[in-house]
Amino acid sequence: MAGRSRIFVFATLTVFFALILDSGDSVKSSDEFKSSHNKSLLESTFNVLEASHAFTDVAWRVIPTVVSIHSTLVVRTRDLWRQRLGGSDINEFFGDNYYNNHPLPREFRQRGSGSGIIVSKDGHILTNVHVVENAEFIEVTLSDRRTFQAEIVGVDPLTEVAIIKIDADKLPVAELGNSESCRIGEWVLAVGNPLELNSTITAGIISAMGRDINIIRDTYGVENFIQTDAAINPGNSGGALVNLKGEVVGINTAIATENGFNQGYGFAIPINLAKEIMDDLIQKGRVIRGYLGVSMQDINEKKARALGLLSPKGVFIDALSEGGPALLAGLREKDVLIKIDEQEVNNANIVQSIITQKNPGDLLELTVIRKRRPIKLTVSLGERKQSIQVTSVLKQKKNYENGGLRVESINGDVAKDLGIDRDYGVIVTGLERFSPAYEAGIQLHDVILEIGERKVLSVDIFLSELMKFQKSEVVIMKLLRGDTTFHAFMEVMM
């Protein structure tokens, strides 16, 4: 620190003496300095404003193409326990017939939320698997607040890419960019619905490329994430990571955190990978994957020394599948794969990502190091027998009788017990969980005073008025809770 202080002082004194020796031009130099400073400040201000305008332009272009997704998931108690017990069945863990002899619910429903990206004018939406998997029904809300029920077109758990569809047309479509052109340090914006805060945009940079964070629990899982410090939180999943051209370069998918919320480490699926999966799901109804037939290990410094490499690079070929394309092409165990075509590969997840984006029958040139010598091989990719079959499944809401409500007339005793001073209305005495009435916020012992434009004078009047509404129409009801009246909006699903 002392050395640095001396240098700073010396430099200051040098400047001071130079000004004294040149005192005749001091006024002129001062004016020139002010003029130059003002010009520099003005240019900097314009640069900041231009950057701000770029962010604003991107926001207004992208927001209409990103949707909010709400799903109701069916969670089976037995499956949940198996997950919590590390794969063991509940009977195996606690003893025979434990599950059958204890009053555990067979299943329950769980609400989830996420985001999605509109990729076609007729309603195809790109999102994450975990946003929609096991969903009993899916609801999509556009940026203009219109709401649609969605169907699952297909999911690919090995990449976390899913496609859903809504019955709509002339929708704004996101512009999909080229994730291979992304650079570390590049500005990006994350667009989505974190914590159910619709149409939220956060800014940051690309912090790293090619991240493998081990969230896909499958040998053939493909993890090649873009890392960003743009704030990503629960609800951002499936949303867009866009560059300053307004192009989608990634699908926001995960965060690294110790508290469940953003700590500056977010991860997005590269859009080039997502596009390949998306096209297969939409056009072919299944995911078609290229197959190389190898098991691999990343190479660290210790492995590099054992293999005689000058530095840790490439991917170690650990094993080959019997009769697989790699073995037939001449690849051998202990080879070090360093290039696919002309692209260098230094991580197993990068190899997986490249192969996933290729089709069966594609020819690839592999460059490997074998016993410290480079060798080139040509391989014709096969097709994975485990290619995931997907079908279009429409997740319909259950038809709840009378919207999930059971009502009774208000008699004197009931009115007295509940402190109701009304001579009309019906009281809610039954309510099914997750029904349209439940979703509308109606509770047990609420009093329904009006339905539509009609006063409710009896149970028969209430039911007859309810029957006039068609499926998917929304009925407005006026209710009394305690001494407060309010209106509920219930979607008719009969």
Model description:
Strands 1-2-3-6-5-4 form a six-stranded antiparallel barrel. A six-stranded antiparallel barrel has the order 7-8-9-12-11-10. The chain contains 13 helices and 26 strands. 27% of the residues lie in helices and 33% in strands. The protein has three domains: 26-287 and 388-395, Thrombin, subunit H (Beta Barrel), CATH 2.40.10.120; 293-380, PDZ domain (Pdz3 Domain); 401-491, Pdz3 Domain (Roll), CATH 2.30.42.10.
Features:
494 residues, alpha+beta, Thrombin, subunit H, Pdz3 Domain, 3 domains, six-stranded antiparallel beta barrel, six-stranded antiparallel β-barrel, 33% strand, disordered N terminus
What is the topology, as strand order, of the major beta sheet? 1-2-3-6-5-4
Number of helices: 13
List the uncertain runs: 1-28, 387-396
Report the CATH C-level class of the largest domain.
Mainly Beta
Oligomeric state of the chains in view: single chain
Structurally, the number of domains stands at: 3
Helical percent range?
A: 25-40%
Number of strands: 26
Radius of gyration: 31 Å
How would you classify the helix and strand content by structural class?
Answer: alpha+beta
Question: What is this structure's SSE topology?
Answer:
Elements: H1 2-21, H2 26-62, E1 66-76, H3 77-84, H4 90-94, H5 98-101, E2 107-118, E3 124-128, H6 129-132, E4 135-141, E5 147-156, E6 161-166, E7 187-192, E8 200-211, E9 225-228, E10 240-242, E11 248-255, E12 266-270, H7 271-283, E13 290-291, E14 294-298, H8 301-307, E15 315-320, H9 325-328, E16 336-340, E17 343-344, H10 348-356, E18 363-370, E19 373-380, E20 382-383, E21 405-409, H11 412-418, E22 426-431, H12 436-439, E23 447-451, E24 454-455, H13 459-467, E25 474-481, E26 484-491
Antiparallel strand pairs: 1-2, 1-4, 2-3, 3-6, 4-5, 5-6, 7-8, 7-10, 8-9, 9-12, 10-11, 11-12, 13-20, 14-15, 15-16, 16-17, 16-18, 18-19, 21-22, 22-23, 23-24, 23-25, 25-26
